[in-house]
Amino acid sequence: MYHFLFVPLTLGLSVLVAIMETVYVMTGRPIWRQMTKFWGTLFGINFVLGVATGITMEFQFGMNWSYYSHYVGDIFGAPLAIEGLMAFFLEATFVGLFFFGWDKLSRVGHLVTAWLVAIGSNFSALWILIANGWMQNPVGASFNPETMRMELDNFFEVLFNEVAQAKFVHTVSAGYVTASVFVLGVSAWYLLKGRHIELARRSITVAASFGLASALSVVVLGDESGYSTSHTQRMKLAAMEGMWETHPAPAAFTIFGIPDVADRETHYAVEVPWVMGLIGTRSLTTEIPGINDLVEEADQRIRSGIIAYDALMTIREERDETSEQVRNTFEVNSENLGFAFLLLRYMDDPRGATDEEIARAATDTIPGVLPIFWAFRIMVGLGFAFIAVMVYFFWRSSFRQQSYPRWALRLAVVIIPAPWIAAELGWFVAEYGRQPWTVDSVLPTALSVSHLSAQDLLFTIAGFVLFYTVLFVIEMGLMLKYIRKGPTQDVEETDAWEARHEHRLRTHDGRGPFAPAGASAASAVDDGDPSPTPAE
After folding, report:
1. Distance between CA 210 and CA 180 in Å, rounded?
2. Contact status, residue 383 vs residue 226, Cβ threshold 8 Å
């Protein structure tokens, strides 16, 4: 979650910068080159620090999660390796050309570079989310009793995992919204200060248009994630809804409630009929199981897993002499082996578990319902709020001559942190909602960690947090410095453009498409306050 603070702005700004440079290449207007350079600088700061935190985070796999790395490394390691080869090298190469190739590449050549940086950033997210999606829905792999590890069976099932694809489009769209709100807020601050009017107005127009499409996509694609969760991670969905009992189809959506884990009830529930059934099942007749029924199902799967564990130990002891019956017994029950591993948190050998211990392990499959319930609702509420904000600024940009009330500009500045909050809540729901599993139904979190003491783990986590915090402070300092400084004007480029179009400037009344920069700056803020002169 800490690393992801650096990621969404990179995803979105890379595309916004490429769009701005596309307009520059198409029109030749210096203002768009100025915009590309300015927002590109902020992208570069965030990109560098995001890469630093991402590379550092991967050390944790060997430090704090060594058994996880051993158990599923064949599957999880492949997307990470491909991400490094296909995406990281691509964006790392072309980001240098983007910043240092302005006077060495043609306009079209530099534009291609900008888009390759954007594509590389999004490719990076794709492979990381394929790896994470497999943790949520482990397809295309099976357990090998000879090696005691999960092994890859079908790479294309991992690649086209429905959870991974839904997570990718949803997460990337969230990154686009984050960048749009960021550009919107910074540009609004410039308008409130009466600085860089032309750049700010054009940036708001681009951000509002791109942000509106992205915000709508987040909601639509989030619905797709909910649908996939209904048949891949049913306990997570039930926890998100605070749904303790299985209700007749179609299930209602709970707008408000206070889940009570002790009583297994959601108090003061305010429900909207049918909505959850339609979102989660795409039908009016399919039930969504409640938490209590899923706990009973987990109890049965733990018992089946114990049978698989017993057969596995026999296979390990007898090796080649193992009877066909024992191997068949293991194959029949192997999909529940991970549920037997839940007992290893409390005992060395699951085969000796009592009914009470099995019931305790089954209850462990319930994640923290109250925090997940409210994290999901706050995230959804912010998502619809972003749509409203983008609709308003799109309307003002398109139909009100790019003039904005001061209250709207102040609001745009205030909500800059909101997309990060929504993104963090989304990851919280995804990761905390998966507990007690590191790999859903395959490997419990308690079994995934390295054999280190609590003090060792706390020390390493504190080290990572300290390092990330230093980088975060550096990023905030650099971002604020360059935002306050503002864009630098390319005087030679501006003079050349004005010379090429001097005859057109003379034949227009100052309101046409070739009007000088700042000609209509007075309408940027529509409260009657004096605006800067065109020289600004």
Report:
1. 7
2. no
Position 508 in a domain: no
Examine residue 433 and state whether it is found in any structural domain, yes or no.
Answer: yes
Give CA–CA dist 41/293, Å, rounded.
Answer: 53
Domain enclosing residue 418, as ranges: 3-234+367-485
Bridge partner residues of 150 (DSSP): 143
Q: Please choose, from the candidates 272, 342, 270, the residue with its C-alpha nearest in 3D space to the C-alpha of residue 305.
A: 342
AA letter at 54? G
CA-wise closest residue to 460 among 132, 72, 59: 59
d(CA 320, CA 329): 16
Which of 407, 404, 409, 412 shows the shortest CA–CA distance to 526?
404
* 86 is a domain residue: yes
Contact 220, 228 (CB under 8 A): no
Q: Is position 219 within any domain? A: yes
Distance CA 327, CA 371 (A): 42
Burial of 503 by CB count in 10 Å (0-12 exposed, 13-18 middle, 19+ buried)?
exposed
pTM across the whole model: 0.90
Q: pLDDT tens per residue, the chain (536 residues)?
A: 899 999 999 999 999 999 999 999 999 999 999 999 999 999 999 998 888 888 888 888 888 899 999 999 999 999 988 988 888 888 888 999 999 999 899 999 999 999 999 999 999 999 999 999 999 999 999 999 989 999 999 999 999 999 999 999 999 999 999 999 999 999 999 999 999 999 999 999 999 999 999 999 998 888 888 888 988 999 999 999 999 999 888 889 999 999 998 889 999 999 989 888 888 888 888 899 999 999 999 999 999 999 999 999 999 888 777 788 999 999 999 999 999 999 999 999 999 999 999 999 999 999 999 999 999 999 999 999 999 999 999 999 999 888 999 999 999 999 999 999 999 999 999 999 999 999 999 999 999 988 888 898 889 889 889 999 999 999 999 999 999 999 987 654 555 555 565 555 555 554 444 344 443 444 567 654 434 434 33
Six token digits for residue 484? 């306050």
3 state DSSP class of 289: coil
The number of distinct structural domains making up the chain is 1
> What does the DSSP 8-state code read for residue 142?
E
Characterize 301-310 residue by residue with b for buried, 16 or more Cβ atoms within 10 angstroms of its Cβ, and e for exposed. Answer: bbbbbbbbbb
Residue with tokens 């700056």: 521
